[in-house]
């Protein structure tokens, strides 16, 4: 199949994350609003152009106070930096439908390479005859690499917020 432009169906897609809390549990969250610019042959993603743009205002951890803190200057400072962007720079096939995507992740004013594993989940037709394709990705990065260092020491040792952020992405897309 030739390289095709794909439009993400946001109602069937998600970008989620988790981070350790108090060294013993995880807090999970999601970004409700994002867009993706994808130009790819889904059967061979090695030549794909992939860019994901996340609206930081849409962060949701199911706690309004925490979300407000994350949007503020201690973390994302969304008034100055309203978007987070991931732009793939190298895609390597590692197995059937499996890939390693390395790309530039920009948070606030810092850009660093982040590698994720991605899977082409396949194609099908929706009930209206439209072609749809599914993609998933997982990865992790250190928030401190992006200047997100706010934390608090715990009396029992350790810190309030872990440094490692785990990402999980599910995307369903249709040809443009």
Automatic annotation (TrEMBL):
InterPro entries: Lipid/polyisoprenoid-bd_YceI, TTHA0802/YceI-like_sf. Residues 5-174 form the Lipid/polyisoprenoid-binding YceI-like domain. It comes from the Bacteria. It holds the Pfam family YceI. Belongs to the UPF0312 family. This is Polyisoprenoid-binding protein. It comes from Pullulanibacillus camelliae. The lineage of its organism: Bacteria, Bacillati, Bacillota, Bacilli, Bacillales.
